[in-house]
Amino acid sequence: MDFFKQTFTAESLQEGQVFLLDKPLGWTSFQVVNKIRWHLKNLTGLKKLKVGHAGTLDPLATGLLLVCTGKQTKSIELYQNQSKEYTGTLCLGATTPSFDLETEIDAYFPTEHITREKIEQTLGQFRGEIEQYPPVFSALKKDGKRLYEYARAGLQPEIKSRKVTVSTFEILQMNLPKIEFRVECSKGTYIRSLAHDFGKALASGGHLSELRRTKIGTYTIENAFGMMSVLNEPASTMKRVTSN
């Protein structure tokens, strides 16, 4: 008998499993959940199965996404509250309305004055507890509407700042105007906003050009399963966290 059907029975999925997945570039987190739900229902014959993810990744971001089934969907908030780790690339000297490459560059700024020393000094401003404004191109709600709905309509809704904690913000490699970085942060931190604000603090512009989530709590991207393998291969080898 197929290993998946022995281990991941309909009953075990309803009781709850947590799958570690590597979200591909261009996919929404919602699309990942739909694909996994469809895949698991087909393999087990279930007509209904609760499936949800613990923490949205933007379409232009890749990396670790925790997908919960059955009763484990009740624990989604617990997973969302855990710290996150990201690696990525920010580009200095230009800004975009979305703070990433979802939208076109809207302004250019000089970068000739930026040195490695200035960058290292500025990093300190973004470590510890900081206040940041979420991007207007985000899924946060205001008056019942997503912020990106206002943005796409050309409106500028009032956005309140929020306190977040950045425990690590370090440069991995620098080849101006691009900087590769690693961040460890609390729930609710927008790395796009961090890139935008960092560029502004350098008296230049900045936007996020690449982002990859590598860790959620103790769960790492090294233990995640690629989506293409999940959809094209038997699910017997899908990595999961055993429910307690």
Overview of this structure, please?
The protein is α+β, with helices and mostly antiparallel strands. It has two domains: 3-81 and 218-241, Alpha-Beta Plaits (2-Layer Sandwich); 84-216, 2-Layer Sandwich (Pseudouridine synthase). It is 26% helix and 32% strand. It has eight helices and 15 strands. It has helices at residues 3-7, 10-15, 29-44, 76-80, 116-123, 147-152, 191-201, 227-232, and strands at 18-23, 51-53, 61-69, 84-92, 94-95, 107-108, 128-132, 141-142, 145-146, 162-175, 178-185, 206-216, 219-220, 225-226, 240-241. Strands 1, 2, 3, 4, 7, 10, 11, 12, 13, 14 and 15 form an eleven-stranded mixed β-sheet that branches. A two-stranded antiparallel sheet has the order 5-6. A two-stranded antiparallel ribbon has the order 8-9. Strand 2 and strand 3 form a beta hairpin. The chain starts with a helix and ends with a strand.
Major beta sheet, specifics?
Answer: 11 strands, mixed
Q: In percent, how helical is the residue content?
A: 25-40%
Oligomer: single chain
- One letter per element, helices H and strands E, the order comes to HHEHEEHEEEHEEEHEEHEEEHE
The name CATH uses for the topology of the largest domain is Pseudouridine synthase
* Gap from first CA to last CA: 26 Å
The number of E-state strands comes to: 15
Structural class: alpha+beta
Strand content: 25-35%
Low-confidence stretches: 1-6, 235-244
